[in-house]
Amino acid sequence: MEQVIASRKSEDSDLSIRWSGRVSLTPRILAVNIFALALLAGGFFYLDSYRTRLIDARLQQASREARLIAQALMATRMSDEEVLVTRLAKQTGTRIRTFDPAGVQRHDSRALGVANFRLRDPDKDPMGQAIGRFLDAGIDTVVGADRAPLYREQPRRQGYRWPDVRRAFQTHEAPASLWRAPDRSPVITAAAPLGARGTLLTTVNARDITSVVRAERWRLSVVLAIVALVSILLSLFLARTIIRPLRRLARAAVRVRLGRAREVVVPRLPSRRDEIGMLARALSDMSQALRARIDATEAFAADVTHELKNPLASLRSAVEGLGMVKDPALQAQLLDIVRADVLRLDRLITDISDASRLDAQLSRAKFEALDLSAMLSAIVAAWEARGLPGGVRLRLDLPGGAPLIVAGEGSRLARVFENLIDNAVSFSPRDATVSVGASRSDGVITVRVEDEGPGVPPESREAIFRRFHSVRPEGEAFGQHSGLGLAIARTIVEGHAGTIHVESREDRVSGARFVVRLPAAEGNGEPIEP
Predict the structure, then answer these.
(1) For residue range 465-508, what is the model confidence (pLDDT) as tens digits?
(2) CB proximity list for 206: less than 8 A, separation 6 or greater
(3) Which site from 23, 176, 362, 481 is most exposed, i.e. has the minimal number of CB atoms within 10 Å?
(4) Which residues pair with 406 in a beta bridge?
């Protein structure tokens, strides 16, 4: 189990973009959705290309109409030209003008009473038209649209000042041009040759193109406004459902950091099944674990103080007695008490130091593959070599075949079994047998240590694993044990993802059975992460 420490640099590179970490979630959510709306707003600019295609089509149409009207005029007598110009102007809705070869205007449909071409004065238009022209100008500026030249009338006797008339006379083609009326609506002119009669010029104010484009922009604006409103409301709803619980969790975490962990109730958000709910429950569990750790630390400090006072009080009484007692026998007895208390303090401080550092040491430990069969055999052999008190015997019961492999730290697990065997030997009567056995089943390795002592009452089977809880057998000298052995054993076992508990023996023989269960591991000899 190796501790992994994530650096600030790696967290920043993995979890956030540099600039985004400085912006609150609400504007970021709104910005993302508004960006999508901006893409939809690009439809306004698409309408500019749509208008361009409409104008190109109308230019081609105007060129064809000019050529057809010119052919119709050339097919009639010169004396009938005025009547035909009037009739064609009414039918086509265009202003028709004819020029002689010298460029002098001969006929004009508007002068003949066909008033189908009239440019609007923008100063006399209503407010809506002014707003429309302003929007047209703004969009044209943004998209960089080409601006057509302003339409201006030319003198009647200088027809060749019209570019289309000049080109039609010179090239015998039917050119068309786009102009801009004062109200920004398009004006389309087209010319066609009349042979020896001169040239024809048609003019139309295509306000319908502007109307179509503005109508489409209005529809798109309505859709965009509705979508924008819905998107903003959904963004605010999304931001509220995300940010409000995050702020509650952040405030609770700040209060925990300020040392108010006992007062803080971190919301668990049980109704949420998303990542925020998982985060809330993880923070709640973390705060509860922190509260339990703080309580355990305070209780441990109080227990340490209490446990240290007893030998210190005894040591002080013995030292004070040495100054007053003159009898050598009594002085020797007091010195024995001093030595015993010093040894007791040394043992107690050592166990307290081990217990206090155990969690941190386990978090940094590098686990390896361990064979519990070999470990238990070595421990039992060492006990037998040292000799057991009161004629107590050790019996080892191990399965044959495959080794019992677990992932762990050898010295720590060996201490667990040493403590359990020491506890069983100390409670065993004379000539009793302490049994140590191990087995494997369903991926779990179970180690049992059984004695023939008085056993553990059911109501005390959990208390004996608490720190400084010590119930010693009769006849044992006071202070031989610190009451931390079983607590240290449980901490080590749980640090190895295992469990430890005490129960009665199944064979109905008096005594206790301590059971340790550890997850099995593969025996490949490589370091194993639990």
Answers:
(1) 776 666 555 544 444 455 677 887 888 888 888 999 988 877 66
(2) 55, 58, 185, 186, 187, 188
(3) 23
(4) 370, 520
Q: What are the structural domains of the chain?
A: 43-217 (3.30.450.20), 294-361 (1.10.287.130), 365-519 (3.30.565.10)
Q: Which residues of 235-274 are buried (b: 16+ CB within 10 A; e: fewer)?
A: beeebeebbebeeebeebeebbeeeebeebebbebeebee
Evaluate whether 484 touches 467 at the Cβ level (below 8 Å). yes
Amino acid at 323: G
Counting every residue, how long is the chain? 530
Distance CA 520, CA 530 (A): 10
Residues 473/482, Cβ–Cβ less than 8 Å:
no
**Taking Cα atoms as reference points, which of 184, 143, 136, 147 lies closest to residue 49?**
143
Q: Estimate the share of the chain in helix, then strand, then coil, as percent rounded to the nearest 5.
A: 55, 15, 30
Of 188, 172, 167, nearest in space to 62 by CA: 188
Chain centre distance of CA 348: 48
In whole angstroms, give the CA distance from residue 30 to residue 20: 13
**Which residue type sits at 69?**
I
**56-97: pLDDT as tens digits:** 999 999 999 999 999 999 999 988 899 999 999 999 999 999
Which residues fall within 8 angstroms of residue 248, CB to CB, at 6 or more apart?
267
What does the pLDDT look like over 182-205, one tens digit per residue?
Answer: 888 899 999 999 988 999 999 999
35-47 tens-digit pLDDT: 766 666 666 666 6
- In the chain the first and final C-alpha atoms are separated, in Å, by 6
pTM: 0.46
